[in-house]
């Protein structure tokens, strides 16, 4: 009898947690769905051990549910997972989620929800989402992928903006070391730098990308043609 | 002395063979640009494929700067040949034409004669490199515009902001001029020793090609002699396309090449001063 | 001729790997001389001239020109020398005018258009001044060679085979030019030539070298007088003359008789006495023709050395 009660209690708790996590995620999605489209100016700073890129300026265009485009007059580079931070991109397809615990992230109380995509389609193996308890915005993401190692995204918000759109993001990652082909500008006879050689010997490539967002134009309408592949 | 140099330049530019170099560059560079138009995107894609796995990026990476960089990399043997073609003739040509007798019986020191010829040769070499710079960058930018320059090294990928590229090229071409002056000095030395320009041209090219091959062989023994081969330092212009730039190493290359020039010219002048003119 | 030495060569030697081309050569050229420099092929003439012009450095010996040592004051000396060394070669891809202009500029002289045209006129090339030298015939190049030698109004002119490739008219013009330069302009000339009668016509002093060594040096007249020459006597009765001379030393000088033409080999001082002797002995002498030949002299000297 006691065992049966315990079993039901536990199941209940688990179900409750499950339900709770779904509830939280739905609230996040709902919150974000207030945004149909936005255009934002970004400044990107890249700090990666094998990559030296100048600070770049660009524009990001977004149209719900999944259209996103990076445009720049010059050169701009963003990690793939960091381009689209809408909840939809992490919550695609079938998944199961669990509310793990509550945690404080940068002075904000957050729910820590674990999301495991089901099936083989997604590149994500496991994603941890830290969701602001009061505002239902994503404050932090940590994800393990099949092909690109692990990454984490920290999002900061400017409370004056009524939409859950961040004012800055820090994207940190670790991937298995990239092979660099010696193509057009490859060096046949390069001067070896001992410092860089040491770096080369490390097994992983790691780094951070800092993005700051400014001048959001939300729900002003964006034609689909913006998102078409540019033909040169 | 200025008069002598002007006369030597006049003689150099009165010969049709001098214009071969300029014409070759004027043809090869557009051809390379056309090839890049056809194949460049694909090559760039291949180069950046790993980057594309984890990153999304936009920008005009296939631009005039990239093409010019490629041209500078790939003409390591062609340009020296065009230099040797003229420099090898500077002294040997006088022997072939029989004009040594006219020249050396003038009331001018042999030192001034040999120096003026060398300086004229040096001017030609640097003009050729300048021409390469103008045509490469000019045509490249007209065909492909400007943009950020992507350079792939064994240590990683560097992308230079578009405003951060031109000054590097300017110094790189300047350094190329210095490298070509070394080639001039070699051809000039050989030219002083023989009576026909063919010998110096072939010998100069042979030395360059052999040295390059020796440098490329991945055996320990050859690695040890690499620092003593001037060809090793001729590609130091690449150091300018690095972040941060190792100025100490770059300066070392500049000094070594300059040293070569001084020694080679010194030997040439010494031999020329003592030479018995039998032609 | 003055006593000022323009060229003074002492114990000059030049050794190449297997050959001593010039061997302790001594010569002196005085101011105003037209000096003939003679020798068979391979005698060392060209090597000597090249040493005088600092094209080749001597193995031994000393060269003084204008009283100065060549090895110390080369430039000052060369400013006053004009020369043609062997065949005149120029920058074929440039015009005659341009060649002279360039050579003048290299020499540091003020080459005006007037001066260049004057010189070209002097050597007969004024009409071809614009033509590229590669289109010139050998004779024209020779003239241009002379032009470049005279461009800066030198005091000493060294000419190596100046009339090679010229037609007789051309040779005559060069000869006249040489004499003009010597007599009217007080230039000193140093000529090397194989055309011996040409040298004979213009030179007052000469040297003959062979195998790099001096054979003879001196005034042309004196040297030639020292030697026997061929004298032709046209007589009315050669048999009678032969009989008459058999009792005298003159018979040793008789070389040949053909009809009434008798050829003697004798030195010039003997001509007048022989003529007098024949006339006193009632022989009619219709002609006395001495043939003074540098060529003969030359072959004589060099044969002796062979």
Notes on the protein architecture:
The complex is a heterotrimer of chains A (232), B (279) and C (306). Chain A is 20% helix and 44% strand. With 232 residues, chain A is of the alpha+beta class. The longest helix of chain A has 31 residues, at 2-32. Helix content of chain B is 73%, strand content 5%. With 279 residues, chain B is mostly helical. Chain C is α/β, with parallel strands linked by helices and 306 residues long. Helices cover 35% and strands 28% of the residues of chain C. The two termini of chain C are 33 Å apart. In chain C, strand 12 (254-258) and strand 13 (261-266) form a beta hairpin. Strand 2 (51-52) of chain A pairs parallel with strand 3 of chain B, so a sheet runs across the interface.
Structural key phrases:
heterotrimer; B: mainly alpha; two-stranded antiparallel sheet; C: 306 residues; alpha/beta; Rossmann fold; Alpha-Beta Plaits; 2 domains; 6-stranded mixed beta sheet; 4-stranded antiparallel beta sheet
The gist of it:
The complex is a heterotrimer of chains A (232), B (279) and C (306). Chain B has 279 residues and is mostly helical. Chain B contains 13 helices and three strands; from the N terminus they run αααβαααααββααααα.
Low-confidence stretches of chain B: none
- Separation, N- and C-terminal Cα atoms of chain A: 73 Å
Q: What general form of chain B does the structure show?
A: elongated
Helix content of chain B: over 70%
- Give the low-confidence spans of chain A: 186-201
**Number of helical segments with 4 or more residues of chain A:** 4
Helix tally of chain B equals: 13
Range of strand content of chain B: 5-15%
- In total, the number of strands of chain A is 12
What proportion strand of chain A? 35-45%
How helical, in percent, are the residues of chain A? 10-25%
């Amino acid at each position: 009898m006691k065992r049966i009660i315990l079993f039901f209690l536990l199941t209940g708790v688990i179900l409750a947690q499950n339900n709770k996590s779904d509830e939280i995620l739905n609230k996040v999605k709902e919150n974000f769905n207030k945004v149909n489209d936005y255009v934002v100016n970004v400044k990107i700073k890249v700090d990666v051990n094998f990559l030296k890129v100048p600070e770049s300026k660009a524009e990001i265009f977004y149209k719900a549910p999944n259209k996103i485009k990076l445009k720049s007059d010059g050169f701009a580079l963003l990690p793939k997972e960091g381009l689209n931070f809408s909840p939809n991109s992490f919550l695609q397809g079938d998944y199961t989620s669990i509310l793990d615990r509550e945690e404080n992230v940068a002075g904000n109380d957050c729910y820590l929800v674990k999301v495991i995509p089901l099936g083989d389609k997604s590149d994500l193996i496991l994603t941890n989402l830290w969701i602001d308890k009061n505002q239902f915005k994503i404050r932090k993401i940590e994800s393990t992928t099949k092909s690109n190692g692990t990454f984490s995204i920290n999002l900061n918000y400017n409370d004056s903006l009524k939409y859950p759109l961040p004012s800055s993001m820090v994207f940190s990652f670790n991937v298995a070391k990239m092979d660099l082909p010696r193509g057009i500008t490859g060096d046949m006879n390069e001067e070896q730098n001992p410092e860089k050689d040491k770096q080369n010997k490390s097994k992983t490539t790691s780094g951070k990308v800092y993005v700051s967002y400014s001048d959001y134009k939300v729900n002003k309408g964006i034609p689909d043609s913006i998102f078409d592949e540019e033909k040169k | 002395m200025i008069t002598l140099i002007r006369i030597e330049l006049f003689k150099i530019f009165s010969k049709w063979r001098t214009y071969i170099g300029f014409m070759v560059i004027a043809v090869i560079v557009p051809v390379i640009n056309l090839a890049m138009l056809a194949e460049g995107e694909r090559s760039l894609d291949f180069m950046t494929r790993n980057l594309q796995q984890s990153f999304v990026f936009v920008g005009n990476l296939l631009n005039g700067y990239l093409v010019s960089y490629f041209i500078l990399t790939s003409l390591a043997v062609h340009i020296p040949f065009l230099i040797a073609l003229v420099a090898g003739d500077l002294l040997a040509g006088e022997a072939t034409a029989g004009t040594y007798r006219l020249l050396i019986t003038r009331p001018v020191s042999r030192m001034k004669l040999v120096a003026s010829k060398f300086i004229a040769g040096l001017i030609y070499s640097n003009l050729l490199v300048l021409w390469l710079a103008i045509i490469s960058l000019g045509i490249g930018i007209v065909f492909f515009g400007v943009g950020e320059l992507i350079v792939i090294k064994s240590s990683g990928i560097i992308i230079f902001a578009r405003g951060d590229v031109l000054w590097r090229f300017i110094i790189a071409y300047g350094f190329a001029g210095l490298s070509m002056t070394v080639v001039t000095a070699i051809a000039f030395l050989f030219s002083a020793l023989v009576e026909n320009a063919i010998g110096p041209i072939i010998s100069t090219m042979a030395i360059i090609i052999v040295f390059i091959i020796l440098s490329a062989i991945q055996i320990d023994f050859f690695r040890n002699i690499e620092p003593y081969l001037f060809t090793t330092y001729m590609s130091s212009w690449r150091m300018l396309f690095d972040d941060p730039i190792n100025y100490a190493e770059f300066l070392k290359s500049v000094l070594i090449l300059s040293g070569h020039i001084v020694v080679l010219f010194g030997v040439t002048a010494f031999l020329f001063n003592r030479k018995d003119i039998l032609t | 001729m003055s006593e000022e030495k323009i060229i003074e060569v002492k114990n000059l030697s030049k050794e190449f790997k297997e050959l001593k081309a010039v061997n302790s050569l001594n010569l002196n050229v005085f101011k105003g001389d037209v000096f003939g420099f003679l020798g068979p092929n391979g005698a060392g003439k060209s090597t000597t001239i090249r040493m005088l012009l600092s094209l080749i450095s001597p193995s031994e010996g000393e060269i003084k020109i204008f009283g100065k040592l060549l090895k110390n004051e080369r430039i000052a000396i060369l400013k006053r020398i004009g020369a043609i060394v062997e065949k005149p070669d120029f920058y074929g891809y440039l015009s005659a005018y341009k060649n002279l202009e360039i050579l003048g500029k290299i020499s540091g002289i003020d080459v005006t258009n007037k001066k260049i045209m004057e010189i070209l006129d002097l050597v007969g090339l004024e009409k071809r001044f614009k033509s590229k030298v590669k289109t010139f015939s050998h004779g024209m190049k020779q003239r241009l060679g002379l032009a470049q030698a005279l461009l800066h109004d030198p005091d000493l002119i060294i000419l190596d085979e100046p009339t090679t490739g010229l037609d007789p008219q051309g040779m005559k013009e060069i000869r006249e030019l040489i004499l003009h330069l010597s007599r009217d302009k007080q230039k000193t000339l140093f000529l090397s030539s194989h055309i011996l009668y040409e040298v004979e016509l213009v030179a007052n002093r000469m040297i003959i070298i062979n195998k790099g060594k001096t054979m003879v040096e001196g005034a042309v007249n004196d040297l030639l007088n020292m030697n026997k020459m061929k004298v032709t006597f046209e007589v009315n009765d050669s048999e009678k003359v032969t009989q008459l001379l058999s009792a005298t030393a003159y018979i040793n000088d008789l070389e040949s008789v053909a009809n009434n033409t008798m050829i003697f080999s004798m030195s010039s001082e003997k001509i007048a006495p022989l003529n007098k002797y024949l006339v006193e002995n009632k022989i009619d002498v219709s002609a006395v023709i001495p043939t003074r030949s540098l060529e003969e002299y030359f072959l004589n000297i060099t044969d002796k050395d062979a």
